[in-house]
């Protein structure tokens, strides 16, 4: 069983990985107090289809290297919103227009942001 502290360390590592790969506007939301079965959202914006796919691939590689669960993820290209479901962590990779449209940060505005 993975602990909350271990999950937080993986969230930080994924955030740093995405930052190193030039993901834009990285936001982490603590979802533990919600009814959803996830502890953290990591929300980022990619600057093109290729960039979004690369960000996804880097996160998938990290999860596999750390032997973390991968429940599901979007495998194609050309999406405005891609998700990676790692059980306790859900990564959202958006195009700029989709991020504005779906506004997950606004939807979950009452939940704590992690710096």
CATH superfamily membership: Beta Polymerase, domain 2
Counted by DSSP, the helix tally is 4
Strand element count: 6
- Poorly predicted residue ranges: none
Shape: globular
CATH level-3 fold name: Beta Polymerase, domain 2
End-to-end C-alpha gap: 25 Å
Main location: cytoplasm
Subcellular location: Cytoplasm
Pfam families: RsfS
Organism: Geotoga petraea
Write the layout of secondary structure elements.
Elements: H1 4-20, E1 24-30, E2 40-45, H2 49-65, E3 72-73, E4 81-85, E5 89-94, H3 96-102, H4 104-107, E6 113-114
Parallel strand pairs: 2-5
Antiparallel strand pairs: 1-2, 1-6, 3-4, 4-5
GO cellular component, one term: cytoplasm
Family: Belongs to the Iojap/RsfS family.
InterPro entries: Iojap/RsfS/C7orf30 (IPR004394), NT_sf (IPR043519)
Give your account of this protein's structure.
The chain is α+β, with helices and mostly antiparallel strands. The chain has a single domain, classed as Beta Polymerase, domain 2. Helices cover 39% and strands 24% of the residues. The chain has helices spanning 4-20, 49-65, 96-102, 104-107, and strands spanning 24-30, 40-45, 72-73, 81-85, 89-94, 113-114. A six-stranded mixed β-sheet has the order 3-4-5-2-1-6. A hairpin with a 7-residue loop joins strand 3 (72-73) and strand 4 (81-85). It is globular and about 35 Å long. 26% of the residues are buried.
Key attributes of the depicted protein:
globular, Beta Polymerase, domain 2, 6 strands, repressor, 4 helices, alpha+beta, 6-stranded mixed β-sheet
